[in-house]
Amino acid sequence: MSVTGRAAHEGILRRQSARESAARTYARVLPIVPVRARGLTIEGADGRRYLDCLSGAGTLALGHNHPVVLEAIRKVLDSGAPLHVLDLATPVKDAFVTELFRTLPRGLADHARVQFCGPAGSDAVEAALKLVRTATGRTGLLAFTGAYHGMTAGALEASGNASDVRVARLPFPQDYRCPFGVGGSRGAELAARWTESVLDDPRSGVPHPAGMILEPVQGEGGVIPAPDEWMRRMRRITSARSIPLIADEVQTGVGRTGGFWAVEHSGITPDVMVLSKAIGGSLPLAVVVYRDDLDVWEPGAHAGTFRGNQLAMAAGTATLTYVRENHLAERAATLGSRMLAQLHSLAREFPCVGDVRGRGLMIGMELVDAEGDCGGLGGGTFGGGGSRDGSGDSVGCEPLNHEATQAAVPDSRPGSPRPADPELAAAVQRECLRRGLIVEVGGRHASVVRLLPPLTISDEQAAAVLDRLADAVETAARDHSGRPPGIRRPHGPDRQHRPHGERTERAGHLGN
Prior knowledge:
single chain; 512 residues; alpha/beta; Aspartate Aminotransferase, domain 2; Aspartate Aminotransferase, domain 1; 7-stranded mixed beta sheet; 15 helices; 13% strand; globular; pyridoxal phosphate; aminotransferase; diaminobutyrate-2-oxoglutarate transaminase activity; PyrdxlP-dep_Trfase_major
């Protein structure tokens, strides 16, 4: 890197630290200064290149600066069309709504209304909560442990890291750290029964709610896919009790999980869908789509100055169309399954990889204390080296064969996962960055390394991502424990040991 580039890089970071809020997050763990980007690749002011598996926290379905997005933006700019129109009708908005409705789950598009709100996902959540409370005349809300719905007051009420008397918190089913200690279909059944009991017990202390909000895959909660049958059960429970069901598809939408919308995996039709991130094609845009019989708002009941972002609508239309016409949801399902399978192999190599789970190109790897005890309530399987792909299968503490375990492990399983290791997860993130790979860390215990690559990632780039991640895990595990990591088996054929520099540059070109 040049001396000038390095000086510019360090100067910008120094001024950011001195002038920006202490609330900044990504900038603290990713000390880079992006100046150019294309597809999966970012180039920093210091000349370094990175493979970006953060993708704007899932916003960049087509990666950075995709040609169809840039062309759509240029077309609006060159046309002389107004860029700020409040909620007036425009050809750009009409095209966006038409394409959006074309992609909606069957059963919703024909009877739907759309509300443009403030440009962030939190704004859309706020609008959805206000909508169901207005439509039902009730105030309470059902939400789930581990949920994340945004940072504004109402969104925080529904999220797992805040509490409010108007929100009843329900258990979200998961295998690895099952709240009932059993996991699998049995754990999901118990979670559903808990929900029914809360609603039907007149002494539960939970009044009849205005709505239920859930994520088909909990993202910030640790990349936890909701079981399909449990999703159908929630739909039946809410329908039978006239409770509007709100699906938060802010991060899961637009092909991310292998379906255009994540609710499609279970075949349900929610009453309300909250959409943001990828629908704006990298620009700020958020909407609420809901059944027309809920549309009882008076004019002005929910407004916002920046509801009419024409550039975002044009970029969003281009993105939705490209994902649909090029079958990128199906591509995400296929490539995601392949990446999960390779990460399962990594979990069998390293005891510190407690669980691998995800759906499509929304992937999580939980890091645990490899020396910690497996015992007590709190885990659904045997505790380490596991996997979770939405099907309900996982492997635990013992390095068992994953395929054999699917058939051999009953629904009620003893044991507990090892303790989460957030320090190790942070170390893996740092080692990834050293190798030119950007990943996110999240989850309930801040111990889940998350991958959200663009849907346009190539097979070669996916291999480079996994190669760098595997090296980062190996190095972090060794340095974290002060001794070589316990490796369960020799590296397989997918782990090609090349010089570090070659791994760093592989697939690092500025392209799609």
